[in-house]
Amino acid sequence: MSEQDSGNIPMVQFLSPEGEFAVPSQWGEYGEYLKRLTEADYLKFYRDMARIRRFDNEATALQRQGQLGLWIPAIGQEGAQVGSGYGVGHNDHIFPSYREHGVAITHGIDLMSILKMLRGVNHGGWNPDATRFHLYAIVLGSQALHATGYAMGVKFDGNMGTGDPEVDQAVITYIGDGATAEGDVSEALLFAAVNNTPQVFFIQNNQWAISSPTSSQTTVPLYRRGDGFGVPGIRIDGNDVLASYAVTAKLMDDARAGRGPSLIEALTYRIGAHTTSDDPTKYRSNEETERWKARDPIMRLEKFLRNQGVGQAFFDDCAADGDKLAEEIRAKTFALANPPFENMFKYVYSEPHPLIEEQLAWLTEYEASFEDEAHPSTQLHNVINEEALADKSGEVAPVENSGSYYGGIAGASNGGGE
Amino acid sequence: MTNFQEMAIARAINAGLRNKLAENRKVLMFGEDVAQLGGVFRVTEGLHKEFGDAQVFNSPIAESGIIGTAIGLAMRGYRPVCEIQFDGFIFPGFDQITTQLAKMTNRSEGYHRMPVVIRVPYGGGIGAVEHHSESPEAYFAHTPGLRVVSPSNPNDAYWMIQQAIDSDDPVLFFEPKRRYWQKGPVNLDQPPLPLHSARVLHEGHNVTLATYGPMVTVALQAAQIAAEEGISIEVVDLRSISPIDFTTVVNSVKKTGRLVVASEAPNFVSVASEVAARVAEQAFYQLQAPVLRVGGFDIPYPAAKLEEVFLPDADRILEAVDRVLAY
Question: CATH for A3-333?
Fold first, then answer.
């Protein structure tokens, strides 16, 4: 185990991997937040973690069957994501990276929006204002600055430190261990500190940035990354949904109250591949993965709930619920229509633009000229798609003869970012 | 009666900013040293005193941070105006401008409007050290989702900065820094044109000379010298670099049959190249001669003692005018 995972660093944990619950006195102020939870909340945490894992597995299958261009699994990180998501208040804003499916379900995002994006129907397309869950950011760390700017706006608007829970707001941004190496994250920490913004930086340290271990991104534990900027940090057991909930809730409360920005490092593990284009067997050992599987966030909450007397019927119901969700998204994904070509032009600018109008008019006429025959470029696409689908490994499909022109195939099946 | 006031370009931008800051408290002005100092060119002088930290403030020296937080503020409903201190300092913010700001409206299918203005003093001629004299406008004009403009005179500067702030799209506002103290009349009552319209500044019938920003003054000098020699040059000030008002340029070329495009930027893959290509597409039969470009050379901007050789002057423009007239 690396220094990152040495166990010598204090880490907030309420649920042990064996499902034993305890609030150590040093984490008492966070433990207080668990008193807000009812039994129904514990069950909800479990149900959402189980559902999102089932969703995740189904999405991987859909990618393998050619229904998605790419899938980005979050398996193993459900505790960090669902716990933290529920720690975010009803007025707060969330700036995710691209793996935060477990945060998305806690704020009512239609999961089909995420699948649509990864199928290539659009680049996001859910309403970030209404959901307060902003669009996925593919360029690593870019969203940390947007979150900080947004949090500056919250403060300028007077939505901080009034003590009125309907007025005060905070902002949370999710980044990975790899993204912490990006300059934008450092600049975001700096702007947050000098502006004393109401925000939390939530780092999911899942140990791997594609094939690069966290030790290649930092020599200092990531919970200390904000220190030099004036953003205090804390490490939590990211596979403990309760720790993730409580620490997020507390620090978001602090942020809303005007006590400044802070940082959470959630120690977790990406059980799956970086994306469906990745092959983790090339860079990490099975032993390592197995070791982390023993600390699985869903399993440990299940042990705890069973110890509390929750019966098999509940777990069966959650499994059935997950299967129903998987069936639903499968059917909906197969039914997704390709977007009309006008969509490419529609939102480039908010106001009219002569070049856009001219090119849309030209393309409309050009496309119409093929009305009575199959479009030659469509035919070519179909050939390529069939070839790509034939390769179920998810690796870039070699496309003979058209490979150089349609380099886009590689782009469609390759993952972006780390 | 129309209310005219004599102003330098820097003061005109300042006055335009003041109007918008006063009109809407959601308009913010920030960047490096823009508050108490008023920016290194004093374009924002007095604005901090008048509007306070709530609207005018200094940013850390981090261009990506300036643009990235402007995007977040725009999502929150603000209308940020960012100052990039010098042209050559914009590149640490390039990713946030081209990958985030330019694409945010498209990515969000219109949910996020991005009314962000990025003010950039640009161009050479001030005897500066490296990175203080560049003309990077083509990088941004090449990026879908951005608008790019450059005023050449105080009246345009006064109105175009206000129109840029009113725009719901991101606008790169390139300010011709060596003309900051050039004075001219500003019509305080009425904007001269929409933001993206070109204008014929000087009518002529032998050659069209299209240019923008700091080169407009040089082009007008060239037109005057040519007139003394009996050559009639029509000077078109593009004003907007993206989109370009090709109608005005093409109409002029249809009249004159000849086109020279001048700018300080290197010619290779430049705004001048785009104008040349478009005119070739739209006025092929009216052209009497090849389109010529007069630009900076395709080299890094030289040390100050060589910039007079580097920058196109009236003579370099007239040399090109002579060549197109030789056909």
Answer: 3.40.50.970
